[in-house]
Amino acid sequence: MSKPSLPQGTRDFSAETVHKRNYILSTIKQVFELYGFQPLETPAMENLETLMGKYGEEGDRLIFKILNNGLNDPKNTDKAKAGFEKVLEGKNSPLLTERALKYDLTIPFARYVAMNHGILTFPFKRYQIQPVWRADRPQKGRYREFTQCDADIVGSNALMNELDLTNIYHDVFNKLGLKEYTLKINNRKILLALAESCGGEHLLTDITIAIDKLDKIGIDKVKIELEQRGLNEAQIKSIETYLGINGTNAEKLISITQLLGVNDNAKNGIEELTWITQQSTTANIEIDFTLARGLNYYTGSIFEVKAPETVQMGSIGGGGRYDNLTELFGVAGIPGVGISFGVDRIFDVLEELNLFPANAQLGTQVIFFNLGESESLYAYSIMQDVRKNGISAELYHEPVKMDKQFKFADKKKISYAVILGSKEIEEKICLVKHLKTGIQESVTIDGLSDYLKNKISTE
RNA sequence: GUGGUUGUAGCUCAGUUGGUUAGAGCACCAGAUUGUGAUUCUGGGGGUCGUGGGUUCGAGCCCCAUCAUCCACCCCA
Q1: Cys-Cys link to A182, which of A40, A158, A306, A328 (CB 3.0-4.6 A)?
Q2: Is the CB of A345 under 7 A from strand B?
Q3: What single-letter DSSP state applies at residue A327?
Q4: Distance of A42 CA from B66 C1′ (whole Å)
């Protein structure tokens, strides 16, 4: 047998990592619920048909497909071969694969809303935290299995929802200690107006894909890309002017009105942006007309969250408004707006800035040293009392040299050691040693739980 | 999907133009030390050199394949 290994792009999470991830996830969850969102979970797999064609050609290629069972049954041989022929042509075939792992949380959510729109109360606010899978080539900060963390409101056009979502970002990042984040905001209607002023709505996709890369490749290369996508010099010129707008939020709104204000779509978009930035009380919101976001289903406000500039990290969250997500599943007229947190990247940022609180990684708090068979049995009964008081405790599993027991405690980052030997038992006391400072105190056995509770809470 | 990088002990790595029985530091275990973490000393366990083929008298080293890794592109979180 060969050495055990993990599939490409997947990870095991150690206790420390799980504790830290849970700290992030429970913080987000708490805020979501505070804003009236309810949880939803959907299966790991969906029917392939549900997912295909929803993420563009590239996306279809990256969906993990699940091979049907029973293909080796002789009565299925012809079907399997026919299906295989189709796959060789680059097509999918239900003869071979009917199910796939979910690729994101949005499409399964849309499917859920389409299936249940009769019984849901609108506006429907749900959050969802689950793993998704993509058959992408892994690299820095990119995995084949990763956790998405979404909140959406469907069935309402009110801009109040956008305001709520920006405040959720603010609350979450403040609770996580990431006060220097930037929430970039733009409106797809303004981009649409830009496309129209350049010659037509059909240019929207090409323009958004190109300017979405501005951050990464610079203005010159964006111009080259626009040229390759078939735009002429005058069109590129006006896009460059658009991208050059800067200043405070208020100044940007004036500039954009001068540039595109005659266009109805632009007017709407600018109105929406103005309202959101005026109502929002946080200083972290920044209008950014270069923000485009690749996903084509966005139709109104779009968001993206940047980590503080001191850390080299792409976006740690994003979202936007869409008009007709459920139309794909035959239910029209349900608009929505949503946001997403990039949990893995937030993890890396908090790690780099050392923002995890010490209690985010707490394991065992107290260890009882094992000083012999009868002593340890006595210690065990005392330990049970300590556990009843909500303090996580363990007893060293065998009577070995204290040196070894100290090292064990050290490795497990346990804060306190309780020494309870024959001498102490006789005197009805025990010695409690704080392992970081080496300070040792004598405590009565009856008072041990209270002593530890007090110590741990004031640490 | 395209191009490149790396893979040797638990960890970090060395290993000469292919040549005896593959090394170091850290970690681990035991003893010096049978109730207080250090230091020091002594001894010890650990490797099918990612995997499978090939070339060769001989392969950790060369060739092919494969798996994993990291990086860039594409795309995206």
Answers
A1: A306
A2: yes
A3: G
A4: 36
Residue A360 in this model has a pLDDT that exceeds 80: no
Is-cis flag, bond preceding A308, omega within 30?
Answer: no
Task: Please give the structure tokens belonging to residue A260.
Answer: 């595109």
Whether CB of A404 is under 7 Å from strand B: the answer is yes
pLDDT tens per residue, range A31-81: 999 999 999 999 999 999 999 988 888 888 899 999 888 888 888 888 888
DSSP A334-387: --EEEEEEEHHHHHHHHHHTT---GGGG----EEE---SHHHHHHHHHHHHHHH
pLDDT digits (tens, 9 = 90+) for A251-275: 999 999 999 989 999 999 999 999 9
Q: What is the ipTM of this complex?
A: 0.82
Protein-contacted positions of strand B (CB under 7 Å): 1-3, 28-31, 33-38, 48, 50-51, 67-77
How far is residue A209 from each of residues A190, A214, A224, A251, A364, measured CA to CA in Å? 15, 10, 13, 26, 50
Amino acid A124 CA to nucleotide B31 C1' distance, rounded Å: 70
